[in-house]
Amino acid sequence: MTNPMIKVMLLLFLVLSIRADEELMKKECSQTGNQNLCLFCLATDPTSNQTDLAGFVNITINCLDAQLDILINDVTSLSTKGVGEAIENVLEDCNGDFSIAKIELYLAKGNLVTRNYENASGLVKTSVSNLQTCRGNLQKIKFNESSHVYDDIDIYVDLSPVAKTLIDRLH
Predict the structure, then answer these.
(1) Phi/psi of residue 45, each to 5°?
(2) pTM of the model as a whole
(3) Which helix (H) or strand (E) holds 94?
(4) Tens-digit pLDDT profile for residues 150-159
(5) What is d(CA 43, CA 49) in angstroms, rounded to the nearest whole number?
(6) Where in this chain does the record put each Pectinesterase inhibitor domain (predicted)?
């Protein structure tokens, strides 16, 4: 028979360790300049309560990658709706920009593995320029078909400094 005191101690340890991990998430996210977005991103991954700063960086990059998937799907969907050749060409270019950003995130992950934090941080930062290029091109043609594309770009632009700050805190 198991001692009830041992069960209570184990439960208390589990509760305290989860609470400590939540505090670590809050502490690290408070350093990013966008604590709410950082916490929201980390909350999307069930392992965030059991990881460290390096894990938070990976989760944040995964959030950026997921945001790119959303943008690619949105833009692909829009380009098949017959919005006109000029808009379709810009949307196609945007998908190219998003694909380049995905490659940069992939390379950033590789740099994290090799502990080349400066390169990883730089790749996250430059990935934003691809989205800004897309936004600029859409604005040039006065694209108003779907405001959520602009909103999704804003989310990426706001989340990327979170990832960059967390990466910079690794070294």
Answers:
(1) -110, 120
(2) 0.82
(3) helix 85-113
(4) 989 998 998 8
(5) 8
(6) 20-166
